[in-house]
Amino acid sequence: MKLLLVAECRDGIVLGNYNELLSFAGKAGGDHAMFLVGRESSLPHYGGRLYLADSVKHGEYRPDNHKKLLLDTIAKEKPDMIVFCHSSYGWDLAPRVAWALKAAQVSEVVDYVDGDLVVPVCNAKLRRVVRVLTGTTVVTLQAGAFSPAGELGGSPVIERVTGDNESRIEFLGYEAVEAGGVDLAKAEIIVSAGRGIGKPENVEMVAALARALGGEYGASRPVVDSEWVEHSRQVGTTGQSVAPKLYVACGISGAIQHLAGMKKSEFVVAINTDRDAPIGEIADVLVVADLTQLVPILTAKISAL
Amino acid sequence: MNILVCIKQVPDMESKFRIDASAAWFDTADLAWRMNEYDEYGVEQAVRLKEQVAGADITVLSIGPDKVKETMKKALAMGCDRGVHITDSDVSRRDPAEIAGIIAEYARDKNFDMIFTGMQSQDRGSGQVGVLLAEMLSCAAVTTIVDFSYREGRIEVKRELEGGIRASVALNIPALVTCQLGLNKPRYPTLPNIMKAKKKELLSLPVEDLRKLESRQQTARIYFPEKKGGGLVLEGDPARLADELIQILKQKTSILA
After folding, report:
1. What is the structure's pLDDT at B226?
2. Which fold does the domain A184-303 belong to in CATH?
3. Tens digit of each residue's pLDDT (9 = 90 or more) over B63-85
4. Which tens digit of pLDDT belongs to each residue from B170-221?
5. CATH for A2-160, options being 1.10.340.30, 3.40.50.620, 1.20.1560.10, 3.60.21.10
6. How far apart are CA A155 and CA B220, in angstroms?
7. Other beta carbons within 10 Å of A36
8. How many CB atoms lie within 10 A of CB B163?
9. Of A69, A252, B39, B253, which is least packed with CB atoms within 10 Å of its CB?
10. How far is A193 from chain B (nearest CA, A)?
11. Interface touch B235/A169, C-beta < 8 Å
């Protein structure tokens, strides 16, 4: 089997997630080459052939243009599988390439077993084994599912790719979501509120438990989107990544984007009414309870210690 | 302005799932169904666009068995003008290219200026249908938007990237955008609007008339993932649970020591 791995670049710097592409390639077996729209000043540590298009000319988000460059490379390289990260770059570009190639695309792959791809279903409550019926396959890999296999090294053999730079989409610039005053990354204890808290008035209940434990409170995305808690307290892929000694997840189901931001916590307690919530997969203790009953009692008992 | 919003009916993710007899999907009986959360943001943005642009018209489209009409009625009550229900009892077996192909076949000659979809569904979560549909219609597409504005035939949107970064991009219509959570605040349908929605056109079309593509992948089986080893599950009376949890924290962590 022959793979083409699609790396990514932001602000002229190659992103480290190409490691995960290599880890997947190791598991799948066979030859591989890499494709990157990026800069020669920031290259992956990769000893193979790198098809490199210049991001100064071709931009970092010009998907119709990147699609053409990638299709030219695919025509040359003739891979059996084109592998992306399941990222804002990968999930945007992959379907465009899959459609052009008349290939099946399998999204957010978490495992590769005997030629079958495994993906999550229903907020990761279930897994689905997918069988592909086309000769060429496009896949995107869930972030963190294929962890790097050790030291990487080498310098790529560069093969330049270029073409026109026409794009229907005009890139205007990057901006950072405004950072707030709370640095959760430094907190040793974090108590986080999820959608299961039910109403904004219950944020205070979670904050009170955090205070009783001497920690900070955080929140999952739905709670921040509802503006019950400010963005600076959001834990997850699009918020902060944390690694406290204790993480208490209150009413958080455990979407992958949230887990990615807190799974390095030393000890995880999840309080949830749903025994099958995916947070249970990584929790050291899952307390199946109504948090509105349990949390005030827990806070009172801890305060009394 | 002619607007299309594509929505999907999905089970409530808090449901207790059971695997069905085929072992290739979950049992769809006894589940609560609702609008895919991402699609609610798409409907809301379409309605806001209609409020901005005089004479705009919104078609909401969904594929599935008869019960998806319940979800479509919510979209109509939120402000969509008409519904197109593509009747299909096999929707859960179709792959993203088949689904996009069905919608493209419907949309091809309708000259939509703007198409909104969710960035992914909560059940299958492929995140492909919107982009595939745009490719099939040769229309420009931007995924994962968290901000949208329209002015004189051109849209400006912000894409959400990893690590708290956004990318601003601009493009001309016709365009398709896939909507991320937090794009806006989806409205709750008011009672008068729910009553009005009952009178709105809801056309049903058989999927056989629109399906031109064959499936490119199939589900071999689905299963429940194994729980992490050693994870303790506590249940029972809240006061006793609190005591147990405090004991565990004392023993297993340096907290409360």
Report:
1. 78
2. Rossmann fold (3.40.50)
3. 999 999 999 999 999 999 999 99
4. 999 999 999 999 999 999 999 999 999 999 999 999 999 999 999 999 999 9
5. 3.40.50.620
6. 40
7. 25
8. 13
9. B253
10. 17
11. no
